[in-house]
Input
Amino acid sequence: MAVRPHQQSATQTGSGSTSQYDIDVRVGNTLYTVLYTPPPGTYGAQFSAGLQMMVLVGAHTITFNDVLGHSREVPIISRKTVTTNAGQ
Output
């Protein structure tokens, strides 16, 4: 649903230039925010808002297949229940 650059806290260390994104994923009436780190040499996660795909929701992770068919597992950093409008 939405993609935002991940804001690292001052306590997180590392001098690498790895980009990370907070991605909102809606499954049923639950909105999950996951932390996605693209594999080295890839780009485009910031343009994936609005895509529909199959996901497997676990207790602490969501698993999906990327466009090349590789299985990716990302940590869930938050979840909340959302309501739907009957007109949508």
In short: The mean pLDDT is 83. The two ends are 15 Å apart (CA to CA). Residues 2-6+20-81 form one domain.
